[in-house]
């Protein structure tokens, strides 16, 4: 499948009906999601026939991209039942049979049960910049525990140095696959005075040796 085709399929995926601010429910745009999944597949061969986990999967745009590029199975994990109901509806409408969902708090998973159970972990985690400081790093630590090969994640560009340091403390190789992507936070929250707020994010790859 071509990149443009994947992006246009992902444009059909429904996003959060009533996004919950405390869960940082801002969806990955179809453009960024398609670029991420396409690169993970074409450059790193980490999607096709792989067991993939999507942490904080929300309505499933990343999982659906992975499923469309022939993941063996992509399992989405999210704390929010409403988001998972939309995920389920999205996958049913697209007649995908290689996805599954687990409702859970990603920060409180039983670590031993999931250690190295997935080939690849993909995610756009909560950025952890409000009441939930450090949430992005909790997601990353969990993802690195679950993956056998690699973790792909979006993080605020402003946190790049901190993440690089953590990765080296954890003896994991981190590379920035695409830097300073414009991530458009829709004005779905009352405190946003403008229509949308742009922030810069990096698409990162962590490889486990
Ligand atoms: C930035 S959104 C990304 C959603 C989706 N992956 C996407 O790319 O559009 C973060 C997601 O993390 C979920 N989330 C927040 N805290 C969580 C937690 N403790 N455990 C599991 N999921 C959580 C939210 O419900 C939300 O769906």
TrEMBL record:
Taxonomic superkingdom: Eukaryota
InterPro entries hit by this protein: DNA_methylase_N6_adenine_CS (IPR002052), rRNA_MeTrfase/Polyamine_Synth (IPR051720), SAM-dependent_MTases_sf (IPR029063), Small_mtfrase_dom (IPR007848)
GO MF annotation terms: nucleic acid binding; rRNA (adenine-N6-)-methyltransferase activity
Methyltransferase small domain: residues covered: 43-135
Family affiliation: Belongs to the methyltransferase superfamily. PrmA family.
Name this protein carries in UniProt: Methyltransferase-like protein 5
Protein species of origin: Anguilla anguilla (European freshwater eel)
């Amino acid at each position: 499948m071509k990149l443009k085709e994947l992006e246009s399929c992902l444009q059909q995926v429904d996003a959060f009906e009533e996004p919950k601010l405390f869960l940082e429910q801002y969806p990955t745009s179809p453009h960024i999601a398609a670029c991420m999944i396409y690169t993970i597949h074409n450059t790193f061969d980490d999607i096709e026939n792989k067991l993939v986990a999507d942490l904080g999967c929300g309505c499933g745009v990343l999982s659906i991209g992975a499923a469309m590029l022939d993941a063996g199975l992509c399992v989405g994990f999210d704390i929010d039942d409403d988001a998972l109901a939309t995920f389920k509806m999205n996958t049913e409408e697209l007649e995908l049979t290689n996805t599954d969902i687990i409702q859970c708090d990603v920060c409180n998973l039983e670590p031993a049960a999931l250690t190295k159970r997935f080939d690849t972990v993909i995610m756009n985690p909560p950025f952890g910049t409000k009441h939930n400081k450090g949430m992005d790093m909790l997601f990353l630590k969990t993802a690195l525990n679950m993956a056998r090969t690699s973790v792909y994640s979006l993080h605020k560009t402003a946190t790049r140095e901190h993440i690089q340091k953590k990765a080296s403390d954890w003896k994991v190789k981190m590379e920035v696959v695409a830097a300073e992507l414009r991530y458009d936070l829709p004005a779905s929250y009352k405190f946003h005075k403008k229509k949308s707020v742009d922030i810069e994010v990096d698409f990162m790859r962590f490889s486990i040796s």
